[in-house]
Amino acid sequence: MSDTTVQVLQTGRVQVSPRLPFQTGSNQLAVVLCPKRKRIWLPVSVYLVRTSHGNLLFDTGWGTAIRGNQHAYLHFPNYVPNTGELPQGQELVTLLSGCGVTPRDLDVILFSHLDLDHTSGLLEVAGPGIDGAKKVLVCREEWDAAEKSHVRYVQDMWRGVDVTTFEFDDTGFGPFGRSKDLYGDGTLTDVWLPGHTAGSTGLVVRDLQSGRFLILAGDCGYGHQSWEQMVQPGLAVNREQLETSLAWLHEQARDSRCIDVLACHDAGVSPQLIQVC
Asked: Which end of the chain has the smaller Cβ count within 10 Å, N or C?
């Protein structure tokens, strides 16, 4: 049996417009300015991926600072469309501890992208003064976009952290033929899935013996409906790219070797352990 597993963990919830998940063509301003009383709650999932190469954490979800003054913490442009909730017991460090993992046991933290509900927990597992993760990775496309924009991104989320950027290789794998084989053996492949953001990615977790695989799709979609019915969310930086990314997920999901495709904010996904074999 494969020793590769993916533990789905949920670090609280994010409150968003009901038009966000499956409303292609929605007025983006209306999505952003949706009154709080009309918003819906979606889970904020992160993934502990265990392979023979060690422990990789895909995204870090909400940090405990979300429990304070969210207006100040998230900054005004982000506070308007997003608010978060982190119940007791759903802190990232607590969830990892339940899996027998401490921050120092994390070999790699890899980000699907750098939106605040994916990066907020970083300082608690890799911040200054923390005996934490050995390496923090993000693709060059997302890093460049995040460092330039003080509207969408909150650079305080990774301030003081030694972040390593990487370039995708022209592998022919993925919707744009660009991906990164993290260990050189096909076990974990980060795939460029732009559209939601300039540098959004998805992680393909593969069992080398059976060829079966699981895709962690980040925010390329908000659930199976996204790629099964080709329904884009209400917000995107590039709809043409997102359409191509979703079409690739649609194709992969139909592959008989595909175990599942998981979106970070899929309301139908619960915390669980998935054996990749």
From this structure: N
| pTM strictly above 0.70 | yes
Q: What are φ and ψ of residue 156, in 5° steps?
A: -60, -20
* Spacing of C-alpha 88 from chain mean position: 22
Strand partners, 16: 40
Structural domain total, the chain: 1
Q: What's the rounded Cα separation, in Å, for the pair 121 and 123?
A: 6
Containing structural domain, residue 128 = 5-275
For 50-102, write each residue's pLDDT tens digit.
Answer: 999 999 999 999 999 999 988 888 886 666 667 899 999 999 999 999 999 99
Question: How far apart are the C-alpha atoms of 108 and 2, rounded to whole Å?
Answer: 20
Question: How many CA atoms are closer than 13 Å to the CA of 227, on its beta-carbon side?
Answer: 29
**Angle at CA 261, nearest 5°, toward 248 and 202?**
65
User: By C-alpha distance, which of 141, 213, 146 is closest to 179?
Assistant: 141
